Amino acid sequence: MNPNPQAGRSAPDSAQPASAFGKLACSNCKLRDVCMPVGLDENELNRLDQMVSVRRKIKKGHALFRSGDPFTAFYAIRVGTFKSRVVTPDGKDQVTGFQMAGEILGLEGISMDRHACDAVALEDSEVCVIDYQHFQMLANEFAPLQKHFHRVMSREILRDRNMMLLLGSMSADQRVAAFLLNLAQRQQARGFSGQDMMLRMTREEIGNYLGLKLETVSRTLTRLSDDGMISVDQRHIRLLNATALKALIGLTD
Amino acid sequence: MNPNPQAGRSAPDSAQPASAFGKLACSNCKLRDVCMPVGLDENELNRLDQMVSVRRKIKKGHALFRSGDPFTAFYAIRVGTFKSRVVTPDGKDQVTGFQMAGEILGLEGISMDRHACDAVALEDSEVCVIDYQHFQMLANEFAPLQKHFHRVMSREILRDRNMMLLLGSMSADQRVAAFLLNLAQRQQARGFSGQDMMLRMTREEIGNYLGLKLETVSRTLTRLSDDGMISVDQRHIRLLNATALKALIGLTD
DNA sequence: CGGATACTTGAAATAATTCAAAGAATGTGG
DNA sequence: CCACATTCTTTGAATTATTTCAAGTATCCG
Fold this sequence. Notes:
Two copies of one chain form a homodimer.
Chain A: E1 15-17, H1 42-51, E2 54-58, E3 63-65, E4 73-79, E5 81-87, E6 93-100, E7 104-105, E8 118-121, E9 125-131, H2 132-141, H3 143-169, H4 172-189, E10 196-198, H5 203-210, H6 214-226, E11 230-233, E12 236-239, H7 242-248
The structure holds a DNA duplex.
């Protein structure tokens, strides 16, 4: 009978200074292409390195932050996967996204100076802590960094709008197809296979995210598998016919 | 057989310089409490006034901007109501929001330097054009303005996340109740009645927004009306029992 | 290994959609 | 300013996609 780790407060699982040692710095980070520092020059990168000075490790099932926590920083994922979810007063919840390495967490907190969702690690993970105040001091000097920050927020809005389209108008087949294609595309952008993937989340979490019940997700995966578009072996999914999947959601390849 | 006004390009319906004359300036605007200038001091306000120098009138049914249009500015609604919608390659579309006076349109465009949705006027409307580059020059000097801008974007993310919750997990009754309560609350924040409202959108647009068919919206309104929670006379809706409506979506008043 | 969690599959139930028709409101052109 | 066409809204009946309930199997983790 383990205490549910998600029930605990979101205390740091660990914290360590980071970029004083060159090889942990933004300037050396393999995720530079998908994370904050996109498009910065040497000088700007060095300043950023000084600022992103803390890392935090989060164990599977633990929260990086929770709804209501004061907002002081946002986070760039170095290693691992998270889910974000909003929770209603009466206990209903909605997974609003799955985030992977290089993606940013916590920007929704700026609005109220408090986080408005939970971010829970789906596997042992590690994030870079980016202090908002500190970051803004830097961004006010380097306009390109400010602009990049705006782009990141704007992209988040775009992503959420597309999710509204999915939730508002797509069938179960289409939702699952869109979900798998999106995941594959992001894996590929990180140098992994665009066909093969290991899901880090349960059917229930996928269903919650897609506005479906877990049984419907399971059935839909089976159906797509029967139709030869994918192969399913538990959480190992292979895209066998991406073109057909795209066609499902109205994309001509 | 009229040419559909929505089919036309989004050319300015009209444009005029604005704030050179004091009474049209941000500093005098009745929407100050709900729009951009929140929390600025005199000095900052004057600078903002100089910048928000152009207004645009948009006739009912016409687009302020369309998906694909280059992004150069965002917009604050002075008068009227808009809907935003995203459109898929295959013609499906999703209304992602209804915006009223004081609210900001177009921030989704920053990410790609192009607008990613259409903003269509639901009645004859007028907006303040806020040039993004110009605004950023000012915001880089005045940290509070930059911070406010971030809050506006963050609030947009929050709003979209709540919409995902609605679309992902609520029944038709709950969706319509949440929609009406939200509208009423925003009307009230603008000094109008929190009970009485004139909808500016069709049942179809509401349905599209809420992930329902127009018939379902109509039936749901009838049902809420039969239950005495609201009265419906075409687009005139009156909230007769807001507490019951809130209870529907799990809010204890 | 054993208990708990995750996943699949079937059958019945249901909420919402689709199809259809008719009535009300709105706006346009004569 | 009226008449007609168009758009919008309501309502009913049949259909359907998804959910719910239920049971069984597989898998993971300590």
